């Protein structure tokens, strides 16, 4: 049983982890965009058009990486909304998660500089898969018996959050299969990413009753019944 001092330390650790995570997310997203190539010398209009046309594939890869990290950042914000504390195991899970996140700009650069390489694309997909699975593991560990999250968080919300973390790993497995058949299609599969999130968001709009609300409603019904009987 933790005393008040230990609880306070675990909560402070959570605040530090949140700040560190925000900085690494911002840095990873910035490094992804900073990888864009720029012309090294002045160009004619024809050369500029040719340069921009050749950059379309690279820009799509940067967009994929940025959007992917953006969805992970949304998941991260939603999870931290429900966290109440952390512990050593959860810290290590999240630190490894942040390590995988920091590898995304490198993985993106590989797909840009090696656009026809099957293994460069598979490496990117594996990077995203590991990132998602670590997010799933950290949330599953934290939500087990509500040990690190809000005690009154509904089971439906916990399951929806877990499903959110599995969207990108499942999509990354699909992209690996697609890459073996058509490298060009690999890029386009990633743009399907918003669709499952929209579907899950629809489920999340339905009203949820927490255990505390359920108990309060039952008590209110009992009191109303007793008053009518009297």
Automatic annotation (TrEMBL):
Coiled-coil ranges per UniProt: none
Membrane topology: Multi-pass membrane protein
Superkingdom assignment: Bacteria
Catalytic activity: K(+)(in) = K(+)(out)
Keywords assigned by UniProt, alphabetized: Ion channel, Ion transport, Membrane, Potassium, Potassium channel, Potassium transport, Transmembrane, Transmembrane helix, Transport
This protein's GO CC annotations: membrane
Cellular localization per UniProt: Membrane
Membrane-spanning ranges: 20-39, 51-74, 94-115, 122-142, 170-193
MF annotations from Gene Ontology: potassium channel activity; proton channel activity
Keyword set includes Metal-binding: no
Family, per entry: Belongs to the TMEM175 family.
Protein name as it appears in the record: Integral membrane protein
């Amino acid at each position: 049983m933790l005393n008040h001092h230990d609880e306070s330390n675990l909560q402070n650790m959570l605040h530090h982890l949140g700040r560190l995570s925000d900085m690494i997310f911002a840095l990873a997203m910035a490094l992804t965009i900073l990888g864009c190539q720029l012309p090294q010398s002045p160009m004619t209009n024809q050369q500029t058009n040719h340069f921009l046309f050749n950059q379309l594939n690279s820009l799509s890869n940067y967009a994929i990486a940025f959007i992917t990290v953006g969805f992970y950042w949304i998941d991260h914000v939603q999870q931290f909304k429900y966290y109440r504390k952390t512990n050593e195991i959860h810290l290590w899970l999240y630190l490894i998660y942040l390590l995988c996140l920091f590898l995304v700009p490198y993985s993106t650069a590989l797909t840009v500089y090696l656009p026809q390489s099957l293994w460069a694309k598979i490496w990117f997909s594996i990077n995203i898969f590991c990132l998602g699975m670590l997010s799933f593991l950290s949330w599953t560990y934290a939500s087990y018996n509500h040990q690190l999250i809000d005690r009154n968080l509904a089971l439906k919300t916990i399951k929806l959050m877990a499903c959110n973390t599995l969207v990108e790993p499942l999509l990354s497995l699909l992209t690996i299969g697609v890459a073996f058949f058509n490298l060009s299609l690999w890029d386009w599969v990633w743009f399907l990413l918003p669709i499952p999130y929209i579907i899950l968001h629809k489920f999340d709009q339905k009203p949820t009753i927490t255990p505390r609300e359920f108990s309060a409603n039952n008590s209110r019904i009992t009191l109303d019944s007793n008053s009518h009987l009297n």
